[in-house]
Amino acid sequence: MKSYTTMRNLYGTLTLDNSSTNLTLGDQFINDSYRRVVAERDWDFVQKTATALTVASQQFYNLPYDYEKLITTNITVGTQVYTPKEAPTRAFWDQLNSVSTFTSNFPMWFFIFNGQIGYYPTPSTSAFTITYVYDRLVIDLSMADYTTGTVTVTNGSTTVTGTGTTWTAPMVGRYIKITPTDIAGASGDGFWYQIATVASTTSLTLVKAYQGVTVSAGTAYAIGQMSVLPDAYQDLPVYDAVRLYYSSIKPEQERYNMYSQIWDRLHTGLIADHSDKTTDPTINDEDMYPINPNLYVNA
Question: Where are the domains of the chain?
Fold first, then answer.
């Protein structure tokens, strides 16, 4: 994986200009490209699930704060999961709601408007689970690596202990890598682990347990901000930024062509590897039709 700092430094190296002015420009180029790539498809790596609870006689509900595009929504009533269809137009939705308020625990339609999602019929009972599967928004990459102090961690544990560190709550969601060395008891495994919580300035927990050999002596580490792009394609926005640099800031056709070819290969690989959710080549939708659960209502 490549942190924001690593990507920024790579941009400076490839453009042959490590000045603060150019690196700041590179930040903009990289983040613009990053957002474009994330938004261009329903990638598996940007999809996320969130839940809410129904409120009796409440039709509209706020969508998640990082919502970009809905993939599907359902409401679980007991053991039955109901998946409503999207109302095709505002006129259709208004017509559904034009006669009188109709409440039911069996949703048939949904409609998105002004950052909220509405269900028809209006839920009649509270505390049933609404589930959203959606493409999430991403934030700009801007946080430099944090490397102050040293750490210790035990194999199989999710707790990392720092010495001389000043960890803070905003580091939650970033990743930590414990530096590999040749010193027994002071070598990390070199993998990035996502941070789940920061308990104090010297203690944090990981989303997944540390799998390397126990680090009993304080060793170096880095906490970095990562993009959501898969590991093999995290350079993609950098090469896009570099080719933009060589087409506008310092036009050089040969370098522009070279970095465009690299970008094209990476982009093609990303599409091939992550447009489908599985590697099964036999999956197709021929003669497959979703069953409408509303046809099987269990009162």
Answer: 4-41+140-231, 45-136
